[in-house]
Design brief:
alpha+beta; GMP Synthetase, Chain A, domain 3
Length: 79
């Protein structure tokens, strides 16, 4: 993994669920096995309600000039 960010995704049942956006390193491909490996990794480190229910592989995480994640741009991918 080269970079990542997480935002709340609207959900009909729960209201919101965590969704992770991940930029993978060159030479790796986004696969179901990688998705499962990432979920297993965070399952040991985060409370259940904070664990991403969805992982999306992207080319880049949008950032401000100072380096902060532009979460509103990540949320815009849901609409």
């Amino acid at each position: 993994m080269r970079d990542c960010g997480a935002v709340a995704k609207p959900d009909a049942d729960a209201g919101e669920i965590p969704c992770a956006f991940v930029v993978i390193r060159d030479g790796y491909a986004p696969t179901d096995a990688l998705d499962k490996e990432l979920r297993t990794f965070v399952a040991d480190r985060l409370a259940h309600h904070k664990q991403p229910r969805e992982v999306r592989f992207v080319k880049a995480i949008p950032r401000t000039p100072s380096g902060k994640i532009l979460r509103r741009e990540l949320r815009n991918t849901f609409s």
